[in-house]
Amino acid sequence: MPFSSFNLPPSLSDILAKQNYKRPYPIQQKAIPAILNEKDVLAIAKTGSGKTVAYVLPILASLQTASSPENRHISVLVLVPTRELAVQVNEVFQTFTTGLTKPIKTLAVHGGVSINPQMIDLQSVDILVATPGRLLELVGSNAVHLSSTETLVLDEADKMLNLGFKDELDKIFTLLPKKRQILLFSATLGDDLNNIKQVLLHNPLLIKIETETSDVDLINQLAYFVSQEKKGPLLRYLIKHNNLQQVLVFVSSIKRADNVANKLRTNGIEAWPIHSKKSQGVRTDLLTKFKHGKLRVLVTTDLLSRGIDIEFLPYVINYELPRSPKDYIHRIGRTGRAESPGEAISLISPEDEHHFKIIQKKMGKSVNIIDSSDIDLKGY
């Protein structure tokens, strides 16, 4: 099925061709026609399955023929859980707005930066991508109004509920008009999400593309058995010896992220930590450099495991294992995305053995474990 089968506006089809989009992914095939037909949609699909484009294209197509509301009354609201995801979703919208017959203005708003420039930039915005807390601040300042919003998108809705945004979401829902289109995208369907679905969605189309682990086969998983004190030298050996580029390293804490990145730099490997203690400007700069291959290694915590959206990330390394098997899937899912292969490496200490067995059992896939005692780590 080509994109041309959706009868998108010619200007949008031209942008798709210029961006080298050849054929839609499964979630796009099912979601785009439903959204164009103004149906509510509940889509369960893992991050990296193409879901952002699945709602960006039909939203932009619909706005090409819609009348614009009053100033500061936005037509489309997209709610996301993290600052990074807000920026990334807005970038996707902007990719497809350049060259449209009817100009569309989009804006991302989030915490961690001054609110005043965002209040000014909200002039004549059609599509607003926002984190819930900052959105409510802007509403409270009368900088934006939701009474004319025709489409609401909840992206990574399960993550928002897990991070404790439920009260803020409830407040936002009361500000929206009763008649609106709701598009809910999530990696999982838990009880909280099911309750929101029953309250918000009207006869929704349920799209369930794949299970949480369905793309694991695209990922070449490998583990090394190593003592805790030799994890650092082994990490540096793997990166240098195999000349790994664009490596995302996961650790369990902010302090560890700083320490691992510092050690890598001390040993001649360009690496920087990214976590919640970094300012938004620094986080955005590091992500941009990493995406474009200008930063070799990024060391991060689970807070950003869903906020880092890179289409062709080749390597993920678990310096430390996450607490839950589900978080392990989210981590390694940063690679092997959108039908592109990737490699995930885990460093397993004796204390990790039992937990890693549980992860493999939950994942339904065994991982080859190499004993690192035969590797010469001298000098690393």
Main β-sheet: number of strands, strand sense, barrel status?
7 strands, parallel
User: Which residues form runs of ≥5 with pLDDT under 50?
Assistant: none
What is the CATH first-level class name of the largest domain?
Alpha Beta
Query: What proportion of the residues is helical, as a percent range?
Result: 25-40%
Structural class by sheet pairing and helices: alpha/beta
Instruction: Give the count of helical stretches.
Output: 14
- Give me the CATH fold name of the largest domain: Rossmann fold
Strand order of the largest sheet: 3-4-2-5-6-1-7
Number of domains: 2
- Report the portion of residues in β strands: 15-25%
End-to-end separation in angstroms reads 51 Å
CATH architecture of the largest domain: 3-Layer(aba) Sandwich
CATH superfamily (homologous) name of the largest domain? P-loop containing nucleotide triphosphate hydrolases
The total beta strand count reads 14
The whole-number mean of residue pLDDT values reads 87
Coarse morphology: elongated
Q: Could you tell me the radius of gyration in angstroms?
A: 22 Å
The H-and-E topology, N to C, reads as HHEHEHEHEHEHHEHEEHEHEHEEHEHE
